[in-house]
């Protein structure tokens, strides 16, 4: 029967159905069927109306959680379901330093003399910590073909600061490394993850805009357009991570190098413990401290000499105020913001362009203050004085619960920076990738411009 004939037959059957006369018995039967269907549907709804299973390390609230639910159980944070899923399900491939020519130089320097241990401290320590945590992660895979994401290890900030590579060598080495990665070429870098932990961000790799403009960048640094014509941070693909707080502050409470002290015993209303570096906001704080020495402690820190504050002495001073002022330095992020949570003073952000981590989970208005950097003066101290101790204690209590997200521990912990980063990475996973150099055919094979299938691609591969 042709298509027209099939259409006529269906039309005729439909008309015949419409001409059937429904008697009382048919009506009663139809009503009974409707009622049975209704009650069966309600029963099934109740059967499946159970809480969405949560990840064992986090209490998950369906939909968008009210702000208050984030702080119901200390150390357990609610991750929003939308866009993340109900549990972590990731496969991450971590490149070995020996499998790609040049990768070892990005981790050890040209002579291979820089150790991972020496790079694990300071602001660049996150490059080492994230790498080492991924090596031990249950989400790590040894099979590239099944990986959702690819992690490219590099300690390049530490290497540069210790003279292991200069800027030109860093750029050349990154280009050489990326040219040897077929999977980077396959996705145009969309599924490859890089860590750039300093204020310069991805600008440490001068050609990042050509090669990494689609890759996922983990960095504490957000917008840098105040210093450069273009920012290397993009909210749609990159992830803000916490700074690397001194391990002596983030250990278990009893073994921390300093302990918080009660508000009533703190000598100052506020403090700023940092170098001026010629920055306007910091210089204003130094002047303000001279005007109000009984309210604001702000000695200009020295890196060397007799006036240099030691590690323990620095944190002892930091804990001695109700508010820790956190102005920008060379860039918008400041480690002092994170440190303040462990000495339990309320951070006051004086950096207008700052980006903060895990903003889908944390309401920062509950645990910090952000004040315009253009309004640094007596009015700031007057405002801080007006805040009752009860409100300060409440903010400190909220910060006490979320500060676990600043600590770089394994994802097996109920709350850690690594766990938060993995949740954010999961949101970046794409089912499908394409690049300007990948094409596909009717049999789902992926080919290049010369119609060579992906498994036949050879390295090193040319890049722009």
TrEMBL record:
<keyword id="KW-0812">Transmembrane</keyword>
<keyword id="KW-0735">Signal-anchor</keyword>
<dbReference type="InterPro" id="IPR004263">
    <property type="entry name" value="Exostosin"/>
</dbReference>
<feature type="domain" description="Exostosin GT47">
    <location>
        <begin position="89"/>
        <end position="376"/>
    </location>
</feature>
<keyword id="KW-0333">Golgi apparatus</keyword>
<dbReference type="Pfam" id="PF03016">
    <property type="entry name" value="Exostosin_GT47"/>
</dbReference>
<comment type="similarity">
    <text>Belongs to the glycosyltransferase 47 family.</text>
</comment>
<dbReference type="GO" id="GO:0000139">
    <property type="term" value="C:Golgi membrane"/>
</dbReference>
<keyword id="KW-0808">Transferase</keyword>
<protein>
    <recommendedName>
        <fullName>Exostosin GT47 domain-containing protein</fullName>
    </recommendedName>
</protein>
<keyword id="KW-0328">Glycosyltransferase</keyword>
<dbReference type="InterPro" id="IPR040911">
    <property type="entry name" value="Exostosin_GT47"/>
</dbReference>
<dbReference type="GO" id="GO:0016757">
    <property type="term" value="F:glycosyltransferase activity"/>
</dbReference>
